[in-house]
Amino acid sequence: MSVIENMKIISGNFIDIENRMISKRIININDSGNIENIIPTEQVQDVYILPGFIDAHIHIESSMVTPYEFAKKALIHGTVATVSDPHEIANVCGIEGIRYMIDNARGAKLKIFWGAPSCVPATSFENAGAEIDADQVDLLLQSDDIWYLSEMMNYPGVLNGNEEVHKKRSNGHF
Ligand SMILES: [Zn+2]
Hints:
Blueprint: E1 2-4, E2 7-16, E3 21-29, E4 35-40, E5 48-49, E6 53-58, H1 67-76, E7 79-84, H2 87-105, E8 111-116, H3 134-141, E9 146-149, H4 155-159, H5 163-171
Parallel strand pairs: 2-5, 6-7, 7-8, 8-9
Antiparallel strand pairs: 1-2, 2-3, 3-4
Helix pairs in contact: 3-5
């Protein structure tokens, strides 16, 4: 990348996802960080330019590192955002664990779209460290940090009309 008159310039093999083609391009980025224009060119370095990846389903705690550390590693491999259900830590430490994940990720460059865990514990056969009921899910969903009701693993509860499960679903505006 080079900088000319407050304009950042990136050049390389531009992967145009919508049109399913790769072409040699120069991308000019203004000082607000927005793409000013994309110009065809003949010669580029042997690099590829493409949109960042969005990991649509990951439980960050499975990585065994904090969200902040996870973000650093994900970014260098091209992932710029995740959709993350913190239900694993919630199964151990409940709401406090969810708050930890969210707070730890503050300041990370990765965009993490947190969900409210719907199934803590995952089943009634577990000896989990916490339980999150429909009222707590509702409170979580009122937070600016939480975007949606996370994966509903208790599909038997959905199909059999379990009242608590359906209360969580209605909280999530499904
Ligand atoms: Zn999952």
